From TrEMBL:
GO terms for molecular function: ABC-type vitamin B12 transporter activity; ATP binding; ATP hydrolysis activity. Required for corrinoid utilization. Probably part of the ABC transporter complex BtuCDF involved in cobalamin (vitamin B12) import. Probably responsible for energy coupling to the transport system. The keyword NAD does not apply. It comes from the Archaea. Keywords: ATP-binding, Nucleotide-binding, Transport. This is Cobalamin import ATP-binding protein BtuD. It comes from Natronomonas pharaonis (strain ATCC 35678 / DSM 2160 / CIP 103997 / JCM 8858 / NBRC 14720 / NCIMB 2260 / Gabara).
Length: 247
């Protein structure tokens, strides 16, 4: 299986604040990987490094074989950031428009064909938001908005979906449906990188777990992760007691 994200000995600090220390981790095409670790352990930072938002202080990161910061086929990457359930940001476009933008990015032309429109309609159908097509994105509930972001990634035919705590603030039913959808996308070949602090949910859905607290404690299949001491070691590093991350 080919490697789509290759992190080699990456270290990154925000000024004096170290966030990621000597992490090496590669993600294969089609892998569903979960990132777990305590609050402030560098999960979001590592994800941002992987998608090329920051340059590592040392080490290297490749995305589809290119340095992540130089990667410019953004449509191959669907990203749902932390707190996108927060309604304070304004996005004065409708759901259909937001998804069409994803399609424009992929198609690379300013006029969409019937095929493009079918792909957009299918994406809305897949995530079950057709009835929301004409609603403004910033007026949706958290769960609806997450699904709209996923539909945009689908319409752009993204190869990787990167999700940072996507169901914070989403009710339990919608959350379960959301994770079923991720499973289905992954079965159809999408590589998924998921930050989720609920370990039961995480291990139920992902193939592999990367457990971090600044450093990488474990990256391996779910069973090997659960059998290891990685979680207690990673959580123990912060405070000596197990913390529950409700951030
Ligand atoms: P997580 O997502 O696991 O909660 P983060 O990657 O957000 O962790 O944060 C890792 C560390 O980097 C923390 O100590 C956090 O306070 C710090 N940090 C995160 N973002 C910034 C930033 N923009 N500027 C300065 N420090 C930051
Ligand atoms: Mg985070």
């Amino acid at each position: 299986m080919s490697t789509v994200v290759d992190v080699q000995n990456v270290t990154f600090a925000y000024g004096e604040t170290p966030a990621v220390e000597d992490v090496s981790l590669s993600i294969s095409d089609g892998e569903f990987v979960g990132l777990i670790g305590p609050n402030g352990s560098g999960k979001t930072t590592l994800l941002h490094l992987m998608i090329g938002l920051y340059e590592p202080d040392s080490g290297s990161i490749e995305l589809f074989g290119e340095p992540a910061t130089e990667f410019d086929e953004g449509e191959r990457l669907g990203y749902v950031g932390q707190r996108s359930t927060d309604r304070s940001g304004t996005m004065p476009v409708t759901v259909r428009e937001a998804i069409l933008m994803g399609r424009f990015a992929r198609a690379g032309r300013s006029r969409l064909t019937d095929e493009d429109r079918r792909i957009v309609a299918d994406a809305m159908e897949t995530v079950d938001i057709r009835e929301l097509a004409n609603r403004r994105v910033d007026e949706l509930s958290g769960g609806q908005r997450q699904r709209a972001f996923i539909a945009r990634a689908l319409a752009s035919e993204a190869d990787i979906l990167a999700l940072d705590e996507p169901t914070v603030g989403v009710d339990a039913d919608s959350r379960d449906r959301f994770y079923d959808l991720l499973d289905e996308l992954n079965r159809n070949g999408m590589t998924i990188i998921l930050i989720e602090h609920d370990i039961d949910i995480l291990t139920k859905h992902v193939d592999t777990v990367a457990c971090i607290n600044r450093e990488l404690y474990h990256h391996g299949d779910t069973v090997s992760f659960l059998e290891s001491d990685a979680l207690s070691e990673a959580y123990g590093r912060t405070s000596g007691i197990i913390q529950h991350n409700h951030a």
